[in-house]
Write a structure and sequence with these properties.
Blueprint (H helix, E strand, L loop, with lengths): L9 E5 L5 E6 L9 E3 L9 H6 L5 E7 L2 E6 L5 H17 L7 H7 L24 H20 L2 E8 L4 E8 L7 H16 L6 E4 L3
Parallel strand pairs: 7-8
Antiparallel strand pairs: 1-2, 2-5, 3-4, 4-5, 6-7
Helix pairs in contact: 4-5
């Protein structure tokens, strides 16, 4: 019995960050959490990201689930390049090309310390076994309440640390990194929620790269 091959479709979606556009596919691109590439050197594990960096206006690439967030340099407007990037990604996927190189993915998941973007670690940038009770509760809240909304905007959030002064440090990725509204989101969204759910324990939420 023959199976009907579903054509690949890609649609572009703006994000709160004017410098980032989200390109959403009608299929999953990666099964791991997410990967972020700041330059072509970091993108060695992703043939798709490497090719995207060949466009002179591409600044950063973030891949998660069924979408690719592309950050551009300010030298050009989205109106001039969105169609070109969308069609490139569609053709790349339709041809069956790899998003991540499987050999590298397997190698990275077995190493304790990695310098390239972490794979398969949803909302925490440290080892789960190193988390204390309060830190684990923070991670659980980020995972359940914050991360889904952040992903809708083409980004990701990872827990970095919590100290005795009640300061939570997070890492913003994708469209959230460098976004003009990220400070507002941190203070009125994430910080307020954590303070409400963990009263007296949370004083402030800061972004390592906000």
């Amino acid at each position: 019995m023959e199976t009907t091959k579903v054509p690949v479709s890609i649609y572009a979606e703006s994000t709160p960050n004017p410098g980032v556009m989200k390109f959403v596919a009608n299929r999953m691109l990666i099964e791991t959490d997410s990967v972020e590439f700041k330059n072509i050197e970091e993108a060695k594990i992703s043939p798709l990201a490497t090719k995207l960096f060949h466009f002179p206006f591409v600044k950063e690439v973030f891949i998660s689930g069924n979408y690719v967030s592309v950050a551009k340099f300010d030298v050009i407007d989205w109106e001039e390049i969105t169609l070109e990037i969308r069609e490139f990604i569609r053709e790349y996927i339709a041809e069956g090309n790899p998003i991540l190189t499987e050999v590298v993915v397997k190698e990275k998941t077995t190493r304790d310390e990695i310098s390239l973007p972490e794979i398969g670690k949803p909302t925490v940038s440290v080892k789960p076994e190193e988390l204390g009770e309060i830190e684990q509760r923070i991670v659980d809240i980020l995972e359940e309440y914050i991360r889904p909304a952040v992903e809708q905007d083409g980004g990701n959030i990872k827990f970095k640390s919590y100290n005795d002064e009640g300061v939570v440090t997070v890492i913003l990725q994708g469209a959230c990194s460098g976004c003009p509204s990220s400070t507002l989101t941190l203070k009125q969204g994430i910080e307020t929620l954590l303070q409400k759910m963990l009263p007296t324990l949370i004083k402030e939420v800061v972004a390592e790269n906000g």
